[in-house]
Amino acid sequence: MFEAKFQSFADASSSHDSAARVAALRDALARQSLDGFLVPRADAHQNEYVPKNAERLAWLTGFTGSAGFAIVLTDEAAIFVDGRYVIQVRQEIDGTILKPVDISKTAPSAWLADHAREGARIGYDPWVHTSGQIERFAKAVAEKKIALVPLDANPIDALWPDRPPEPMGHVAIHPARYAGETAAAKIKKLREALKGADAALMSDPHAICWAFNIRGADVAHTPIALAFALLPKAGAPTLYIDDAKLDPRIRASLEKFLTLRAPSALIGDLETAGARGEAVTFDAATAPVKLVETLRAAGGKPRVIEDPAALPKAIKNKAELAGARAAHIRDGAALTRFLAWFSQAAPKGALTEISAAEALETFRRENGDLRDISFPTISAFGEHAAIPHYRVTDKSNLKIGKGVYLVDSGAQYLDGTTDVTRTVVVGRASRQLKDHFTRVLKGHIAIARAVFPKGVSGAQLDAFARRYLWEAGLDFDHGVGHGVGSYLSVHEGPQRISKLGATPLQPGMILSNEPGYYRAGEYGIRLENLIIVEKRAVAGAEREMYGFETITLAPFDLNCVEPKLMAPEEIAWLNAYHAYVRKTLSPLLDAKTRQWLRDATRAI
Q: 505: which residues sit within 8 A by CB, 6+ positions away?
């Protein structure tokens, strides 16, 4: 039997309680003479996947998406989401209590400036906002003399009677054969980036786990340990982590090169550093404003900069790249077994979105080395496939019939992190579906085949994937690709292929290639592979040139492809990719699945 061990399909939305909860929050604010409160979906590290006790936005509003922001004022409230969640937010919140706002059109700071009264006092939790976020708010509301008030305690926590405890996942050493580089070598790199500062405060758990070659289990689907670290220009780094997460063997291993301290010691250590007048760097993307201002108030010199660990972490070494390739072969075999099974089971009419997701996870677990899924599987049929970040629940679960099924999924293995999306049709594909699918596929191929000079960023490649949709007056509202970690986050920066992707792409970076198209109320299409930036030899080139190696292995649904819309070089790429998939995966498959794969990857 199929089952899911790493994901739940329970409906986590609690919008039916939002009226009472927002009212209680307003009462709590009034007792502190506050006129409003800022509620991000964030923890003290700005993680994408936050621990359950930091899901304050979901508890208050009912919205369960991975990105959002609410502002609660005395007489009105708004919740801000991006294009991924414009449909979902309306389904989950109580629209009589909260007004949904498209964050791409109206920033929360601008909304606050327009809606809060002059001289209002707006509270915020300084542990869940960065300095940059608060500075943007302060600048936006300055003209109306609105005060932003840091609070000693988050008022939501006192209202949340069954708030989960702090996570205490056990820490593990990441094996050297997968890390490919010692912690000492990584620490040396980071020290070189201090550039005159006395120390660096590390607040991104992904960077900390990468730098010290550890992994954890504090949040869902991403093997990180929630912790802070202080890296001085000389001497041992200090890791601020709860002792309950460390067994004696792990503690002994870490104490060989760093000092272990309780998280409660961090504020005092920053005050001591400040009293000495030290300059300390803070990560602009993840450091809580609480820590920055603690150092400043004590007399120190905070320097808020880009995390010096972000780029070296993104550029994978040989061992990490080898691990990624190996993980994708095993993962591709599991996904192919699922697609073959689905092609037989779906037409019988007994499948649902949940049973399909359970089946895919089961096929992955049969690899024998699955540590977790890398995010909740997006198992979406029909109109649900038009919601880019749809999450199936017991309440929303659809029966799969004739039509479009989209599955976006990934896995965590010790040697690599995967993320792949395939869209298939149950029954016959309409002419319209083939047109849309093929345009998305052409965009995918354009990225896969791209050749570009050193220094080019993802923003310069984004339009490659949209061209064929644009020609038909179509588009999609998410980026073309995000960075991917090495047994870390499935969404990693600073590299990305999007209109906002300013970081130059470098060899060794792993990204996704996932253009899509979403027809609201009908169907959605997304085609995703992971790719590695690599050097590319180009005859007569006057500059160093790069391209992409595709490492995801799984067939695209040829039943949805219209070859007449494709150029010869696009057909050649698709046939070559399918031939490689067939050759690489066939030895890992049973005879029946091999036969299915031969047909699924036939040349067109």
A: 452, 456, 457, 458, 461, 495, 511, 533, 546
For residue 349, CA distances in Å to 85, 353, 356, 382, 428 come to: 29, 12, 12, 14, 15
Structure tokens belonging to residue 588: 């890992």
Kind of pairing between the strands at 214-215 and 172-173: antiparallel
Q: What CATH number should be reported for the domain holding residue 411?
A: 3.90.230.10
> Do residues 416 and 324 lie in contact, with contact meaning Cβ atoms separated by under 8 Å?
yes
User: Per residue in 254-280, pLDDT tens?
Assistant: 999 999 999 999 999 999 999 999 999
Give the residue among 64, 66, 131, 306 at the shortest CA–CA distance from 204.
306
143 and 230 inside one domain? no
528 and 402 Cβ atoms separated by less than 8 Å:
no
* Domain extent at residue 217: 172-313
Give pLDDT tens digits for 124-155. Answer: 999 999 999 999 999 999 999 999 999 999 99
The C-alpha atoms of residue 314 and residue 324 are separated, in whole angstroms, by 13
CATH number of the structural domain spanning residue 308: 3.40.350.10
pTM attached to this predicted model:
0.94
Do the domain assignments include residue 87? yes
Phi-psi region of 82 (alpha: psi -120 to 50; beta: other; left: phi over 0): beta
User: Which one of 313, 331, 350 terminates a domain?
Assistant: 313
Short-list 61, 70, 56, 156, CA closest to 115: 70
Cα–Cα distance for residue pair 349/371, rounded to 1 Å: 31
Question: Rounded to 5 degrees, what are φ and ψ at 21?
Answer: -70, -40
Q: Which amino acid is at 243?
A: D
